[in-house]
Amino acid sequence: MPEKIYKIKEVAEILKVSYKTVYNWIELGYLKAVKIEKTLRVPESALEEFLKENITVPFIDKLHPNKSEAIKKLLDILKQTANAN
Questions:
Q1: Is the dihedral of CA 40, 85, 76, 56 positive or negative?
Q2: What residues form DSSP beta bridges with 29?
Q3: Of 8, 17, 31, 69, which residue is least crowded by CB atoms under 10 Å?
Q4: The domain containing residue 51 runs over which residues?
Q5: CA distances for 29 relative to 22, 24, 47, angstroms
Q6: Residue closest to 53 by CA, chosen among 71, 69, 38, 77
Q7: d(Cα 1, Cα 18) in Å, to the nearest integer?
Q8: Full-prediction pTM beyond 0.70?
Q9: What is the pLDDT of residues 3-40, one digit of tens each?
């Protein structure tokens, strides 16, 4: 199955930040993106990597000793919330 690719607007909705914030993260190199037909898109693997490197939740290790599993669960929750709106 091919990897999911997000528009900047979709990433902003998932993470509950502005379009400009996501664009700035890409411009600064914090979030990896690819250019597809003159538009920037964010691969799901890049979004997961960004969350792994930048999320700071002090109790996450207590809830889920496996940080990568916790990030996947958090990403699923954020996607569900974005889709519900």
A1: positive
A2: none
A3: 69
A4: 5-84
A5: 11, 8, 12
A6: 71
A7: 30
A8: no
A9: 899 999 999 988 888 999 999 999 999 999 999 999 99
Q: What is the CATH number of the domain that holds 41?
A: 1.10.1660
Condensed to tens digits (0 to 9), the pLDDT of residues 31-75 reads 999 999 999 999 999 998 888 887 665 555 555 556 666 677 777
Q: What is the DSSP letter of 57?
A: -
Q: Cβ–Cβ contacts within 10 Å for residue 14, how many?
A: 21
C-alpha dist (Å) from residue 20 to 26, 43, 61, 70: 10, 18, 31, 27
- In our burial notation (b when 16+ CB lie closer than 10 A, e otherwise), range 48-63 reads eebbeeeeeeeeeeee
Number of domains in the chain: 1
